[in-house]
Please model this.
Amino acid sequence: MPAEDKLQRSILSHAFMFLSRGIPVIYYGDEQGFTGDGNDIHAREDMFASQVASYNDNTLLGTQATTANDNFDSNHPLYQAIAQLSELRKQHILLRRGEYQDRLYQADKPIFAFARVDATTGAEMLMVFNSGEQAHSIELANTVQPYRLLHSWCQEQAVVKGDVTDTEFSVTLPRLSYAIYTNQP
Model:
C-alpha cells in the first residue's frame, strides 16, 4: 500500500474515533506518524532523537523524518488533522453528547454514515466516510431540516458533493475521505 494511502487511512481512523461514540484517546506519537514495531514493549519510540537502530529503521507516516530526528512537528499532517478534529469536538456538543444513530452500512460497500443526534431539539450531525479506493455515493432519506456541509477532508483536490431534494440527500465522497454535515444553521 502506498505511504500516502497509509496516512489517509490513519486520518480516517482518527476521524472515526473523534466523531463516533466514546472518548477519543491519542497514544503518544500518533500525531507524529509513529507506527512502532508491535507488542507493548516496542509500541512507541521517543519523541527525542533516538540512537536505537530498531527504532530508527521504522517508517513514519506523513514524513520523511525518522526517529533519529527530533519528532515534534505541529505541521505534521496527522497533528493537523487531529487538532482539527479536536477543535470540532470542542465546538459541537453533539460530537460529545449526541446519541449515535446508524444511517447507512452495507457490508459490501466501503461507504457508511452515522449521525449524532439531540432528540429533544432535532439537531443532527451526519458523518459520512469512504474508506474505498474510488469515489462512492450514497442516498439517505432527507430530514425535515436540510443538511449543509460543515467539514470535509480528502487527500485529493476532489470536491465533496452533497445534494438535497425533497425526499433524499445524496453524497459523493472521493476515495479515502470523510465529510460532516449538520442540519443546524
User: Anything to note?
Assistant: The beta strands are 99-104, 111-117, 124-130, 136-141, 148-153, 161-164, 168-173, 177-182. The radius of gyration is 18 Å. The first helix runs from residue 3 to 19. Residues 94-182 form a domain with the Immunoglobulin-like fold (CATH 2.60.40.1180).
